[in-house]
From TrEMBL:
This is C1q domain-containing protein. It comes from the Eukaryota. Pfam families: C1q. Residues 133-215 form the C1q domain. Coiled coil: none annotated. Gene3D superfamilies: 2.60.120.40.
Amino acid sequence: MKRLQNTTLELSKKVSKLEQLKSINQALDFRAIQNKVQSLDQKSILLTNNQNARNQDCLALYNVTQVIDNLFKKHIQSFETSRNETLLNIESKQNASSPEIRNEITTVEVAVTSCVFSDQTFSDYIIKFSIVNFHVGINNLHTFKSSGKFVCEIPGLYFISVHIRTSNQNYYFHVRKNNMLVPSSKSDSGDTASTNQISAVVGFQLNDALYVYANNVRIEVSYSCLSIMKVK
């Protein structure tokens, strides 16, 4: 009987210890849950703060974008206004100066008188008047002397006078502008040399080229000359 009582007492102690352990485990589990909940709360607060910070950054970026957009629009408007004013000023100056420019062009003196250097037949049929007796207002004189072509530098109305002396009979001479025929002349059919004259008034634009064309004709140096003068 006594042994049974001892056994019962031992069992009661063990049950009591088990209950204590159970209470301790439950307390530990509860604390762990509390810690996890607190950790989740902290993370939630952190995420909320981060989201608020992002929202503030987005708002600040939007405000900066609006400011830049407004400045850009003002700059474009200012540029358009300035450009329009500049164009108006240029147009006004052009309109004011056009009569002056036309008057200056009209009054510019351009003239040249030159003659053939020696008796010869020109291989390309363009007569070279390389002996310049007088010139004014011509910058490309070297080109004129070497090629025989008068290239217009100042547009206007020009008077052309050509005298060609040759012993060849019944040969034609042509004044051409930009390869287009202007006036022509023809040598005499007699036995002696003849001096043949061509006169014309020709309108020139910038870079128009004028020359005297003689197809396989021997040109004599005496009296073979060209004169060009701007008259308007």
